[in-house]
Amino acid sequence: MGRTSALRTKGAAPDKPRPGLDPALRSAVGRLAERAARQDLAAFADLYRLYAPQVLRYIAARVWNEEEAEDLTNTVFAKALAALDRYRPDPAQFSTWLYTITQNTVIDHYRRRKLPGLEDPAPDLESVLDPHEDPEGQVLRDEERKRLYQALLQLTPEQRQVIGCRFFFNLPVSEVARLMSKSEGAIKALQFRGLARLRRYLTSEQEVA
Predict the structure, then answer these.
(1) Which of 103, 120, 104 is nearest to 162 (CA)?
(2) How far apart are alpha carbons 181 and 91 in whole angstroms?
(3) CA nearest 157: which of 84, 89, 204, 106?
(4) Contact 103/162 with Cβ under 8 angstroms?
(5) What CATH number does residue 201 fall under?
(6) Which long-range contacts (CB under 8 A, 24 or more apart) does 187-192 make?
(7) Position 109 confidence tier, pLDDT thresholds 50, 70, 90
(8) What is the pLDDT of residue 116?
(9) pTM score, two decimals?
(10) How far is CA 76 from CA 20, 28, 100, 107, in A?
(11) Which domain holds residue 47?
(12) For the chain, how many structural domains are there in total?
């Protein structure tokens, strides 16, 4: 997939958090994944269109540069395509499997490049601004991304994982519990505490601003 594919997702309005997939949609995704595993590129393209916005939002909240987020999104789907013959729908649903690839891709990105965190000085603006885009709009978008990243840093690793699974990939509580080897009650508690901490941080940021 070229970068232009990921770019198409930028114009879409962000979805409201809707953890969990409708059973009918989950079944349809499962059938698409089975077809894609048999090298059906049309089915894989449908999966890309369905999940690319979620993957891009997840990654964009964890890296500084929008172009890097788009490149990493394409890397995720390249890895998924290469590994589809090993995908097994039981016990993991496709979104759980894709989440694992996405999370590992972001981790590898930081390990490979030994990148600094957002608490370090920002890069020179000329190196990150797109000359073909409104500079003010891009700066505001980068500020929002930085704010969300810093908010996520306030969470524990387990809280970040739960929030990522539930609100970026829309995984149901039962699937997150299986992925993290925890009870559903523990996942609900992590989600509640994580959201409360995010709310407190973002509210305090607004008051300061």
Answers:
(1) 103
(2) 13
(3) 106
(4) no
(5) 1.10.1740.10
(6) 187/162, 190/158, 190/159, 190/162, 191/159, 191/162, 191/163, 191/166
(7) confident
(8) 45
(9) 0.65
(10) 21, 21, 10, 12
(11) 3-208
(12) 1
